[in-house]
């Protein structure tokens, strides 16, 4: 009988992704919490579009009557029967919908892909199979079709304790993970990156086209090209690449995007965890790396590859933390690291074509007390000339957001020579500014945020939605009575309206759409509408998407614990009218997982979601009182076979019998 051991996050790669550190921003810039607190203490907490009552233990008759009137008016944009919140080994979708597994870790992508065998893994096999921990999901139509296209999927990171048999042992009541072998590290490296695969819908069901001419794996050993202002700079040259332009691999690809011209965006996030070693305190990159948390050493790659040891290759970390663009129509193309968009722990890069033809990308830097950015191309998008669009991301202006108490915001240009971004502060060129994007934003006075993750522009209502996951390190003195969100465990969502309805504007207005958490607990201070049920509230907003009708869907990361009694999921959130700030649970993931990559196809008849790290935890997630590892898993989703481990997967959600989702 397997011994059950209670444990909390002893596995290094899981700790890295939990982002539970106190952040690396030591600037004196104000936090978003302080700004929200000062703003609403002055104007009254329940004014304007924030006038949505928190559902306390008791709801007043007046509030109930108001809610009934909103329901009678048919206020919500969503029509489906909610899933019941909870925790178990399987996934669940709203009644009347199918949730079909499309791709699992290890599934074949090519005609020569070997059958997945978890006990006979190899890097060569993994490079021909679907990778691990799927995150962002994007779709590029073939001939404009919502029935046939190219699916692009990021593979953010690996959980070796769930991947490899025999790695975890228990002795004297203590759980231990053995060091990885070179073979296991090579498998990890092949399991990172991204997948590009042709898919087709037949008889109402999606399937992979295994011989698709666009099918491709991008991994940690795929050659990429560094472009833009940083290309060729001394600070990105290494012994293996004296040109400073050829970077081996991309990894920790979290959220991402698809450009208007049909290329695939991979955003490099927690790159700091892959580096080990130590730089001398007086090394020229020491302060730069400290701001990014390099080296963190969650991965063991430096044991076998010198480029991940900062003592041996001190410039290598400067080659990661970028936005990567891939031409999916050419499987032989070299992915491009577009340095003009800045170097941070990028959560994603959602884009929209502005009224003047320029393309605007919104970018979150996913760490406590870091910033919200956007990039506006210098050139304009050409709908009829794809080739002309392929260099748009090499020239443009990067901005960082400064939120004001009065509900306005400024987009500050992160441009060499402007304000403090000059030689006397260590910025000799725009390349220096971009390599040290965080320090540049510190000096500009940007607003410190609570883990800014996915940011999505809405082409239908002209708004921008910012997911702020949480910040458990915010101290009481950083907020006031009007904003009781110290130890902000549940996060919030901000809605931005750019001035003049132009996404490329340098100023705008902001409002809090939702303060998340259990509204039945008054001290939490959640602000869901009174129409939100006990199943519909959520915490830790992470990814989001906008469907073709302009409706907001929010995916969460972190609800898997005994405190909430529920797993993560996909929530439909109203943003307009009487139903504003109403949330409904549409789909929930198995124990231990987070929900990533929500995507609605243009016809709104299919939603794709990525179920990441299912089974990663036992004690923390479901109260089992046990660690979850290869030999003793909290779930074996999605196969539920004794000879198969738990496997991250992409799920296709469709309406039974066909039709648009949630209408």
Structure description:
The chain has 11 helices and 33 strands. With 663 residues, it is an alpha+beta fold. The strands form 7 sheets. Strands 16-17-19-20-21-26-25-24-23 form a 9-stranded antiparallel sheet, with no helix packed on it. The chain has a 6-stranded mixed sheet with strand order 11-10-15-14-13-12, with no helix packed on it. Strand 3 and strand 4 form a beta hairpin. The N terminus is likely disordered.
Instruction: Identify low-pLDDT runs.
Output: 1-8, 42-72, 480-484, 620-624
Shape: globular
Radius of gyration: 23 Å
Category by helix and strand content: alpha+beta
Task: Give a short account of the largest sheet.
Answer: 9 strands, antiparallel
Q: Considering DSSP H and I runs of 4 or more, what fraction of the residues is helical?
A: 10-25%
* Neighbour order of strands in the largest sheet: 16-17-19-20-21-26-25-24-23
How much of the residues is beta strand, in percent? Answer: 25-35%
* Count of discrete alpha- or pi-helical segments spanning 4 or more residues: 11
How far apart are the termini?
A: 49 Å
Report the count of strand segments. Answer: 33
Quote the average pLDDT.
Answer: 89
Topology readout:
Elements: H1 12-18, H2 32-43, H3 61-72, E1 92-93, E2 97-104, H4 123-126, E3 134-141, E4 148-155, H5 160-163, E5 168-171, E6 174-177, H6 182-191, E7 193-202, E8 205-208, E9 216-218, E10 223-227, E11 246-248, E12 253-258, E13 264-268, H7 286-292, E14 323-326, E15 336-338, E16 350-353, E17 358-364, E18 368-370, E19 372-380, H8 386-389, E20 396-403, E21 408-413, H9 430-435, H10 437-444, E22 449-450, E23 452-457, E24 463-468, E25 492-498, E26 507-515, E27 541-546, E28 552-556, E29 569-573, E30 583-588, E31 594-600, E32 606-612, H11 619-622, E33 649-655
Parallel strand pairs: 10-15
Antiparallel strand pairs: 1-30, 2-33, 3-4, 4-7, 5-6, 7-8, 7-9, 10-11, 12-13, 13-14, 14-15, 16-17, 17-19, 18-22, 19-20, 20-21, 21-26, 23-24, 24-25, 25-26, 27-28, 28-29, 29-30, 31-32, 32-33
């Amino acid at each position: 009988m397997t011994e059950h051991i209670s444990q909390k996050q002893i596995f290094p790669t899981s700790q890295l992704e939990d982002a539970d550190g106190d952040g690396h921003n030591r600037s004196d810039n104000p936090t978003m919490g302080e700004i929200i607190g000062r703003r609403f203490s002055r104007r009254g907490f329940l004014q304007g579009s924030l006038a949505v009552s928190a559902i306390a233990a008791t709801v007043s008759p007046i509030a109930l009557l108001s809610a009934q009137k909103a329901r009678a008016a048919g206020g919500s944009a969503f029509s489906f029967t909610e899933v019941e919140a909870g925790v178990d080994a399987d996934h669940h979708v709203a009644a009347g919908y199918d949730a079909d597994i499309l791709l699992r870790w290890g599934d074949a992508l090519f005609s020569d892909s070997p059958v997945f065998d978890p006990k006979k893994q190899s890097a060569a096999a993994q490079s021909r199979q679907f990778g691990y921990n799927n995150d962002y999901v994007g779709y590029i139509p073939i001939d404009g079709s919502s029935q046939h296209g190219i699916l692009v999927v990021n593979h953010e990171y690996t959980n070796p304790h769930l991947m490899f048999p025999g790695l975890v042992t228990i002795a004297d009541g203590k759980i231990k993970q053995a060091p990885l072998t070179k073979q296991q590290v090579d498998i990890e490296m092949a399991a990172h990156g991204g997948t590009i695969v042709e898919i087709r819908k037949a008889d109402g069901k999606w399937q992979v086209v295994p011989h698709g001419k666009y099918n491709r794996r991008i991994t940690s050993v795929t050659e990429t090209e560094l472009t833009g202002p940083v290309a060729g700079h001394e600070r990105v040259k290494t012994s293996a690449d004296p040109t400073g332009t050829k970077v081996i691999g991309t990894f920790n690809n979290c959220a991402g995007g698809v450009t208007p011209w049909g290329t695939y965006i991979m955003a490099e996030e927690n790159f700091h965890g892959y580096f080990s070693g130590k730089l001398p305190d007086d090394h020229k990159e020491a302060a730069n790396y400290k701001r990014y948390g390099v080296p963190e050493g969650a991965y063991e790659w430096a044991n076998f590859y010198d480029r991940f040891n900062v003592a041996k290759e001190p410039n290598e970390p400067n080659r990661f933390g970028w936005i990567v663009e891939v031409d999916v129509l050419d499987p032989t193309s070299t992915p491009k690291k577009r340095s003009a968009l800045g170097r941070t722990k990028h959560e994603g890069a959602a884009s929209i074509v502005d009224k003047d033809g320029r393309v605007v990308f919104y970018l979150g830097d996913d760490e406590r007390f870091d910033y919200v950015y956007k990039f506006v191309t210098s050139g304009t998008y050409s709908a009829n000339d794809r080739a002309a669009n392929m260099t748009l991301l090499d020239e443009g202006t990067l901005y960082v957001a400064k939120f004001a108490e009065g509900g306005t915001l400024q987009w500050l240009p992160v441009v060499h020579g402007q304000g403090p971004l000059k030689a006397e502060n260590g910025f000799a060129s725009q390349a220096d500014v971009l390599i040290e994007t965080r320090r540049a934003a510190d000096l500009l006075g940007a607003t410190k945020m609570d883990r800014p993750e996915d940011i999505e522009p809405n082409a239908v209502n002209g708004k921008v939605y910012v997911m702020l996951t949480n910040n458990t390190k915010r101290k009481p003195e950083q907020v006031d009575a009007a904003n009781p969100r110290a130890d902000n465990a549940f996060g919030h969502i901000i809605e931005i309206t750019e001035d003049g309805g132009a996404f490329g504007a340098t100023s705008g207005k902001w409002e809090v759409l939702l303060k998340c958490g259990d509204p039945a607990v008054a001290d939490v201070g959640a602000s869901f509408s009174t129409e939100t049920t006990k199943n519909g509230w959520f915490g830790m907003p992470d990814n989001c998407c906008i469907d073709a009708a302009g409706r907001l869907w929010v995916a969460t990361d972190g609800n898997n614990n005994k405190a909430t009694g529920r797993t993560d999921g996909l929530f439909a959130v109203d943003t307009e009218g009487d139903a504003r700030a109403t949330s409904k649970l549409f789909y929930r993931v198995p124990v231990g997982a987070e929900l990533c990559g929500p995507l609605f196809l243009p016809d709104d008849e299919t939603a794709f979601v990525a179920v990441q790290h299912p089974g990663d935890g036992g004690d923390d997630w479901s109260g089992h009182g046990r660690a979850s590892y290869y030999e003793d898993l909290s779930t074996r989703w999605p196969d539920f076979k004794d000879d198969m481990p738990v496997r991250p997967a992409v799920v296709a959600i469709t309406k039974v019998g066909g039709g648009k989702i949630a209408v």
